[in-house]
Every structure is written in C-alpha cells, then in structure tokens.
C-alpha cells in the first residue's frame, strides 16, 4: 500500500484546544516517526545489493501480476515498477484481463515460478472476486513470495527459519529500530490479530533478536476490555482497520504509538489512531507517511534477498 506523504499529527496548543492544521506545532506534540527516512535507508541498502549482484552477472528481477482494470491497483503497480527500475531490477509484467480464469492465472504464476531469471513475484491485491487469491498465493514459489504472505513463509517466521518476511510487520520493526525506539524487553500491545498484520507482527517482535525480543500482547474483539492492555503498553501498535479506534485515553503517557491500521473511503485514508493521541504519546507515526513507505521498501528488500539466495 502506498500512502500519500506530507501531513503529520499535531498536538494541543497552550490553551488546551487541539489544532488540526498540519502546520501548527506545540510543546505537547509527540515526536513524529516518519517512514520515509527508514524506507530511504532500506532502499539504499537494496540498491547496493542489486549492484553487487549485477557485478556478478546476475540481473535481479521482480515480476508483477495485475488482474483487471482497477485504477488504484494499476497505479500501485506502476509506482512499484518505476521504483523497481530505479533500483536496478528487471520487472517483467503480466496484465491479465478482469475475466481471466483461475486456471489461466495459476498458469502465469507457474510460468514465473519456473523462470530462473525471475527472483520475486508480486500478485497485486485485490484480484477480482471470482478468483481465489489464497489459492493463487499458495501456487507461488514461497522463495519468490516478496509479500512474505505464503503460508510456508508464515511457518518459517513462526519457527525462526530464514525466508521472505511479511512486509508491513518487517517495516514496523525497521521503523522502530531506525528511530531508536527500544523494543527489547518492553511491553508491546498490538490491537488486531489479522493474518496480514497483527499475527505475523506479534511473532516477529517476540523473536529473540536485539531489535525484537519484546513482551507482546495481542488484543482483538474477543478481549472486550482491551483498553486495559493498551493503557499499559510502552509500544502500542494499532492494526485493526477501525478508524479512530485508538483515542488518547487508550494510550499510556509517553508511550510510542504506531498507526498501521487504516481504512480507505475512496481515496480518503482513515487511520485507526486518532490525531489527538499525539497529546499523550511520547512518539507517534504521522497520520500519513508512517508505516506505508516502510512496507513498500520491505517488498524490494525481500526481492533482492530472494535474488541473492537464488544465486549464492
Ligand atoms: N500500512 C500498511 O501498509 C498496511 C499493510 C497491511 C495492512 N494494513 C492495515 O492494517 C489493518 C489490519 O489488516 P489485517 O489484514 O490484519 O485486517 P483484519 O484481518 O481485518 O484484522 C483486523 C483485526 O482487528 C481486530 N478488530 C477489529 N475491530 C475491532 C474492535 N472494535 N475491537 C478490537 N479489535 C478489533 C479484529 O479482531 P477479530 O480477530 O476478533 O475479528 C482483527 O483481529 C487494516 O486496516 C489494513 O488496511 C496496513
């Protein structure tokens, strides 16, 4: 997912009213944790690794598959292809018509699986409703799964084996590390246990590594008194997709708040974390330009790692 960049959370003014203008600042504003510098650092590393592969005669390649004519999806693919080219990847592309059969979609995936020159494959989500996305994902060679969402890669994450990492969780860990937010030994509460975000993120941040190693709690609709948990979190990560679900009273003063859950109404982005949380938090992701850019960067990191693994 690509977010527009530019605006940020603002805090309260000295009289206690909450300014909404993006240009107003306040002593009470939490430190912002933008994703762009994190993405730049990750992509600089990717660029170097691509250059090293090319110097060995390996052309890293990230294939994309788009099904149908949804404007937003086509736009996301164009942005990713442009970025792939800038980073030095080859980017073969298959644009399938919106009425393609499941069998034909699987054939295209199988073709990329068999192509030794293709190291990563991205199936742009969503695909038309008559197609089975999970079945398509399961057809993909797990080692070429740059989204890190194949069930085998979820299993690798669960047991700590190397493999492509789910992009948004990996991006959140990188964001925290880049901004010097200590995770190890601290209490992390994640609101949401979805398969793309909350669940893999919990596995990632509980791993025994210096930039993880946290005490992780996951809350969801089954935990009616979830604020009791979020209120004690040193790091609170919103991954529900319910606009405004996190309000200041859910945040421990001084805590770090990461807003990953969003809902789109048309092109309007509605985040889980209400802007007013910046009045209470010590550090917080901006309303836009927080987690999003890191997610996209991790896609390219997975692609270059896949190319390296295929060419040891
Ligand atoms: N920024 C990015 O790049 C990026 C990338 C991926 C996803 N996302 C966003 O992250 C969000 C989560 O994605 P997902 O695929 O994991 O979604 P999902 O599968 O729908 O999971 C949502 C989770 O939130 C919980 N939840 C929903 N409403 C709740 C409530 N009122 N109280 C407590 N818990 C509640 C659900 O609980 P139950 O399990 O009990 O139903 C579920 O665990 C979405 O907004 C998605 O757009 C962002």
TrEMBL record:
Start and end residues of each stretch annotated as Disordered: 1-31
Question: Can you tell me which residues bind NADP(+)?
Answer: 192-194, 262
Reactions catalysed according to its record: (6R)-5,10-methylene-5,6,7,8-tetrahydrofolate + NADP(+) = (6R)-5,10-methenyltetrahydrofolate + NADPH; (6R)-5,10-methenyltetrahydrofolate + H2O = (6R)-10-formyltetrahydrofolate + H(+)
Q: Any keyword Amino-acid biosynthesis?
A: yes
Which pathway does it take part in?
Answer: One-carbon metabolism; tetrahydrofolate interconversion
Polar residues biased stretches: 1-10
Q: Where is the Tetrahydrofolate dehydrogenase/cyclohydrolase NAD(P)-binding domain?
A: 166-310
Could you name the Gene Ontology cellular component terms for this entry?
A: cytosol
Mention any Pfam family matching this sequence. Answer: THF_DHG_CYH_C
Q: What's the Enzyme Commission number for this chain?
A: 1.5.1.5, 3.5.4.9
Q: Does the keyword Aminoacyl-tRNA synthetase apply?
A: no
Which residue range or ranges hold the Tetrahydrofolate dehydrogenase/cyclohydrolase catalytic domain?
A: 34-147
- GO molecular function per UniProt: methenyltetrahydrofolate cyclohydrolase activity; methylenetetrahydrofolate dehydrogenase (NADP+) activity
Q: Which domain of life is it from?
A: Bacteria
Q: Which UniProt keywords apply?
A: Amino-acid biosynthesis, Histidine biosynthesis, Hydrolase, Methionine biosynthesis, Multifunctional enzyme, NADP, One-carbon metabolism, Oxidoreductase, Purine biosynthesis
Q: Please list the GO biological process terms of this entry.
A: L-histidine biosynthetic process; methionine biosynthetic process; purine nucleotide biosynthetic process; tetrahydrofolate interconversion
**Coiled coil: which residue ranges?**
none
The entry describes its oligomerization and partners as:
Homodimer.
The text of the family note is: Belongs to the tetrahydrofolate dehydrogenase/cyclohydrolase family.
Q: Which PANTHER family match?
A: C-1-TETRAHYDROFOLATE SYNTHASE, CYTOPLASMIC, C-1-TETRAHYDROFOLATE SYNTHASE, CYTOPLASMIC-RELATED
Role according to the record: Catalyzes the oxidation of 5,10-methylenetetrahydrofolate to 5,10-methenyltetrahydrofolate and then the hydrolysis of 5,10-methenyltetrahydrofolate to 10-formyltetrahydrofolate.
What protein does this entry describe? Bifunctional protein FolD
Top-level taxonomy: Bacteria, Bacillati, Actinomycetota, Actinomycetes, Micromonosporales
Gene that specifies this protein: folD
């Amino acid at each position: 997912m690509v977010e527009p960049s530019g605006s940020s959370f603002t805090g309260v003014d000295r009289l206690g009213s909450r300014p909404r203008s993006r240009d107003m600042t306040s002593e009470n504003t939490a430190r912002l944790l933008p994703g762009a510098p994190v993405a730049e650092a990750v992509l600089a590393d990717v660029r170097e690794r691509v250059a090293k592969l090319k110097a060995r005669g390996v052309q890293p390649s990230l294939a994309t598959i788009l099904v149908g004519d949804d404007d937003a999806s086509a736009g996301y693919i164009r942005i990713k292809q442009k970025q792939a080219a800038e980073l030095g990847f080859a980017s073969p592309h298959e644009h399938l018509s919106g009425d393609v059969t499941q069998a034909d979609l699987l054939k295209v995936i199988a073709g990329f699986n068999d192509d030794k020159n293709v190291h990563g494959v991205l199936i742009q989500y969503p695909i038309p409703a008559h197609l089975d996305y999970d079945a398509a994902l399961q057809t993909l060679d797990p080692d070429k799964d740059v989204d890190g969402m194949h069930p085998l890669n979820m299993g690798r994450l669960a047991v700590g084996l190397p493999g492509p990492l789910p992009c948004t969780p990996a991006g959140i860990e990188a964001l925290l590390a880049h901004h010097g937010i200590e995770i190890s030994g601290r209490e992390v509460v994640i609101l949401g246990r979805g398969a793309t975000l909350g669940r893999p993120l919990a596995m990632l941040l509980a791993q025994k590594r210096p930039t993880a190693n946290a005490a992780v709690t996951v809350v969801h609709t089954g935990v009616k008194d979830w604020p009791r948990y979020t209120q004690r979190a040193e790091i609170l990560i919103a991954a529900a997709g319910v606009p405004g679900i996190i309000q200041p009273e859910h945040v421990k003063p001084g805590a770090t708040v990461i807003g990953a859950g969003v809902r789109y109404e048309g092109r309007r982005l509605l985040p889980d974390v209400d802007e007013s949380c910046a009045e209470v938090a010590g550090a917080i992701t901006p309303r836009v330009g927080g987690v999003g850019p890191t997610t996209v960067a991790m896609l390219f990191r997975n692609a270059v790692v896949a190319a390296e693994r295929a060419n040891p």
